[in-house]
Design a protein that fits this description.
The protein is of the alpha/beta class. The chain folds into 3 domains: 44 residues; 34 residues, no CATH class; 145 residues, Rossmann fold, CATH 3.40.50. The protein is built from 8 helices and 9 strands. The strands form 2 sheets. The protein has a 7-stranded mixed β-sheet, with helices on one face. A two-stranded antiparallel ribbon has the order 1-2. Strand 6, helix 8 and strand 7 form a beta-alpha-beta unit. Helix 5 crosses helix 6. The longest helix is centred in the first third of the chain and has 30 residues. The N and C termini lie far apart (101 Å). About 12% of the residues have low confidence.
């Protein structure tokens, strides 16, 4: 009886269907493993989760709802993707050194200095800022998973009272509320973000960029790939006082 059962099992294993399954089983296992890793990493690396519109009507001061043609165009307008690329330790170090130089020139009053990172990713720029300088840090990011991760790191490192992270569109953040503005953004965004700075800067503020410069703003200091700008150095910016020297 046992020989009969064994022969049947052996026959099933050597059937064309069994041979086909055995041949493709490693491929399917590998595909499942890679797919699972991809699902876990997707929220962190997907550029599509951090997109912004080329045609940013709010930044241009245009009410597209009042213009049907513009509204139609906006539906099909090309969208750029900003991939999540973490800042390196060297980039963070340079940015924090420029922050110290900028704060010394700003000569802020007794109020608490507020720093913001536009597109804060995993929060490392904000966390480095609050560790290195006497500031309150704020990070705004579209990717909810990255915001959650940033909050967890801030909690684990004991910085949650000084570092705040929110899911938000950077174009809707009022830059007038902050003294220090970090922007580790793509080159295609710099012209439009500069317009936003021109509109919203209302007091002495500093901007730190990484790799890509603001088109018209005059830089005060450079270090590695990081650049420091002071609003008081910009002749075309109104509403700020000009320091001596």
């Amino acid at each position: 009886m046992e020989d009969g059962v064994g022969a049947t099992a052996k026959k099933q294993e050597t059937s064309p269907e069994a041979r086909s399954w055995n041949r493709f089983k490693p491929v399917l296992i590998c595909a499942g493993f890679v797919g699972g890793i991809g699902v876990l990493l997707w929220p962190f690396v997907s550029p599509g989760l951090r997109r912004y519109d080329d045609l940013n009507t709010q930044a241009l001061g245009v009410n597209y709802r009042a213009c049907p043609l513009l509204k139609f165009k906006k539906m099909f307008y090309h969208r750029h993707a900003l991939p999540y690329i973490p800042a390196t330790d060297k980039q963070l170090s340079d940015a924090m050194e420029l922050t110290r130089l900028g704060l010394a020139r700003l000569k802020p009053s007794n109020r608490q200095i507020r720093a913001v990172d536009l597109g804060s990713g995993d929060g490392r720029v904000v966390l480095a800022a609050v560790r290195s300088n006497p500031v309150l840090g704020f990070g705004f990011e579209l990717n909810r998973w990255l915001v959650l991760y940033s909050k967890l790191v801030a909690w684990r490192t004991g910085l949650r009272t000084r570092a705040t992270f929110k899911t938000a569109d950077i174009w809707k953040v009022n830059l007038a509320d902050f003294d220090v503005v970090y922007m580790f953004l793509g080159s295609e965004m710099m012209k439009e973000i500069e317009r936003k700075l021109d509109r919203e800067v209302t007091r002495n503020q500093m901007v730190v960029t990484n790799r890509f410069d603001l088109p018209r703003w005059k830089p005060r200091e450079r270090m590695g790939l990081a650049t420091l700008y002071l609003s008081s150095d910009q002749d075309h910016v109104v509403g700020v006082s000009k320091p001596d020297g």
